[in-house]
Amino acid sequence: MSRTSLTRFLIEEQQAGRIGPELRQLVTIVSRACKRISIAVSKGALGGVLGDAGTGNIQGEAQKKLDVLSNDILLEANAWGGHLAACASEEMEHSTPVPDRYPSGDFLLLFDPLDGSSNIDVNVSVGTIFSVLRCPPGVDKPGDEHFLQPGSTQVAAGYCIYGPSTMLVLTLGHGTHAFTLEREEGSFLLTQPDMRIPEETKEFAINMSNQRHWEAPMQAYVGDLLAGKEGPRGKDFNMRWIASMVADVHRILTRGGIFIYPWDRKDPSKAGKLRLMYEANPMGMLVEQAGGLASTGRTPILGIQPDGLHQRVPVFLGSRQEVTEAVKYHLAFDEAKD
Ligand code: AHM
Ligand code: MG
């Protein structure tokens, strides 16, 4: 059987003129960093990597040792390759340009080094999410403002899930492709080329404990899902919530479903829990490249003009027809209000 490694896949993408050598190198380096994170995650208690780091990130959230370690691994791996102009991370207040002593490249890299932190200490899947943008022409020391580009301008996006197997799921703007880490060889092998999300679903993913804090259209939409066959949707729905976005999105890319983290009244000043630049945009691109949809419930996620590096948004993504259905409830509610 002929096997396609990530290396070969990227070379073929370059030969086909879909990417240049810099982007190929960038993805290779990110994938290498993910392998290192995978090794650290899989050591668990034996690696001394579990538990709190005793620090907080920019958003006031407690950091786990693995959050800090993964952030350091990604920063270090990407500093010197010559393909990047700057990095931004969910764990750091500001972006960091490539140090002066290293060559600078054309791309900006954003990452959530270890998403699903609450699952680290309980041995449940976590992951790294990343997004790649172009550095605006003529800018050689980019600042935070240069990252504020809509998700539709991403040139690549992906995640690496550290689960029973480690998988890298990647889009370069031409479909979404999954690679599984062959641990003995240390290489990612293409196992699911051109993933397609089923258009319809009977499965939803949401943290139901927040139900009482949702706005009216969310209450109505989920109420109708729960009503099952006897309700207006005329079918029974199943629910899954892993509380690791990578794991929930991976399931949806594999067998369909809708993932929702809506706005809620717990902290009305926050537009949502998830971050536009590190979570919603890259996952939105992966899902849309697999035929699904990504919305805030009202507008397409990839069309949002960001106003801050750590901006939050409500997220609805997955099977096309189900996302469209959820959006209808919100738009109908807004129209009735006007
Ligand atoms: P994190 O980046 O701090 O790990 O938070 C993001 C995570 C997502 O992976 C997941 O979908 C969500 O938070 C779970 O939130 P909750 O614990 O409110 O259910
Ligand atoms: Mg996260």
From TrEMBL:
Binds 2 magnesium ions per subunit. Keywords: Carbohydrate metabolism, Cytoplasm, Hydrolase, Magnesium, Metal-binding. Substrate binds at D115, G116, S117, S118, N207, K273. One of its GO terms (cellular component) is cytosol. It comes from the Bacteria. It is an enzyme of class 3 (hydrolase). Its EC number is 3.1.3.11. Mg(2+) 1 binds at E90, D112, L114. InterPro entries: FBPase_C_dom, FBPase_class-1, FBPase_N, FBPtase. It catalyses: beta-D-fructose 1,6-bisphosphate + H2O = beta-D-fructose 6-phosphate + phosphate. Mg(2+) 2 binds at D112, D115, E279. GO terms for molecular function: fructose 1,6-bisphosphate 1-phosphatase activity; magnesium ion binding. Residues 197-329 form the Fructose-1-6-bisphosphatase class 1 C-terminal domain. It is found in: Cytoplasm. Pfam families: FBPase, FBPase_C. Belongs to the FBPase class 1 family. This is Fructose-1,6-bisphosphatase class 1. The lineage of its organism: Bacteria, Pseudomonadati, Pseudomonadota, Gammaproteobacteria, Lysobacterales.
